[in-house]
Amino acid sequence: MEILTEKEEKNTNSVAYKDRIIGMVEGKTPGPTIIALAGVHGNEPTSIKAVEHVLEKIKGLEDKFSGTFIGIRGNLEALSKGERFIDEDMNRIWFTSILDKVRRTPFDKVLTAERRETKAVLEIIDPIILNENKKEPVIFADLHTFSAETGLFAISSREKKNVDLLSKLNVPLIFGIEKALHGTALKYIQNTGNIGFAFEAGMHFSESAEFNATAGIYALLNASGCLDLSYIPDYEPYHDFLAQQTAGLPKKVEFIYKHIIEEDDDFVMRPGFKNFDKIKKGDWLANDKLGRIEAQAGGYILMPLYQEQGDDGFFIVKDLG
Predict the structure, then answer these.
(1) How far does Cα 21 stand from its chain's mean position?
(2) How far is CA 70 from the centre of its chain?
């Protein structure tokens, strides 16, 4: 696997290139390349710890490993300040035209902090995701946490290769959210012909989210054929914890509604909602300056917003059975 050489690194003017690479393991035999991107939002450092943990455990197993696993930190500036973003949401600017402009713009001329961070990430992943001669699949895992209590899930397209792989993780799969979340990294990766998904591991900074993210990465290594988990001595507690967290949750759900927060709405989510809480049409979910915000459909609530930054108030999904 080729990433930037030291000479190339100096020529990129990337933001803290060495700090961005969490680590990498290259197997002795061919196999998929898994890119784990963590910390795209600066208030979501928990998944970085999970990637660090996995890398520590699989180092030295190169002779048992097929393919490559690489961990990357996303928004270094926002992570240093503990804020979701500095100028704009880094996970809403992955449009082909914007990325083309970011790639062509000299680093010191890029307009926002998040576009500079994205340029630095692209310098690492472009040779992988845009390689037309690759013989093995590329799997891009965009790792996140959220502001609500409990729950975890993966956001995926309905493409068969995605569903076949992600169904093996044994976590709820969310379909259709890409219709409401524009400019995401996972959708861009999917459009390049690679497998891309988002893994939402749990509540920001929680120990359970770190456990879930670690277990999810382990499960992905196994499901993709990179590594037999019998070689991971501490895998079983993570597997059991993940199974406990997903017990009783629907296996596959579909997006049906998103509440959009506009500037000066004064949106406040009512307290106590958790991911996958059942709701009915007309339930009182939140308030804004105009008063009550009621559910426009019945189903499950997803990602209710309990943080200041962000313009997605909540989602509603329905069970696909």
Answers:
(1) 16
(2) 14
Q: How confident is residue 70, by pLDDT bands cut at 50, 70 and 90? A: very high
Q: Tokens standing for 10?
A: 């100096």
Instruction: Spell out the domains of the chain, with CATH numbers in brackets.
Output: 6-246 (3.40.630.10), 252-319 (2.40.50.100)
β partners of residue 268: 287
79-101: pLDDT as tens digits: 999 999 999 999 999 999 999 99
The C-alpha atoms of residue 252 and residue 163 are separated, in whole angstroms, by 10
- Select from 74, 93, 73, 84 the least CA-distant residue to 42: 84
Residue 221 · residue 165 · CB < 8 Å = no
Tokens, residue 214: 């670690």
Do the beta carbons of residue 42 and residue 84 sit within 8 Å?
yes
Please count the CA atoms within 13 angstroms of the CA of 222 that sit on its side-chain side. Answer: 19
Running DSSP on this structure, what letter comes out for residue 46? H
Distances (CA, A) of 39 to 27, 30, 53, 70, 268: 25, 28, 15, 14, 25
Pair 48, 38: CB distance under 8 Å: yes
Tell me how far apart the alpha carbons of residues 220 and 48 are, in angstroms, rounded to a whole number.
Answer: 16
Within the chain, where are the H helices?
6-12, 17-20, 46-58, 76-81, 96-104, 113-129, 160-166, 185-191, 207-223, 235-246
Give the residues across from 129 on adjacent strands.
none
Strand pairing category for 173-175 and 153-156: parallel
Give per-residue pLDDT as tens, 277-302. 999 999 999 999 999 999 999 999 99
Supply the pTM of this predicted model. Answer: 0.89
CA atoms within 13 A on the CB side of 48: 19
**pLDDT of the residue at 313:** 95
Per the CB < 8 A criterion, the answer to whether 31 and 58 are in contact is no
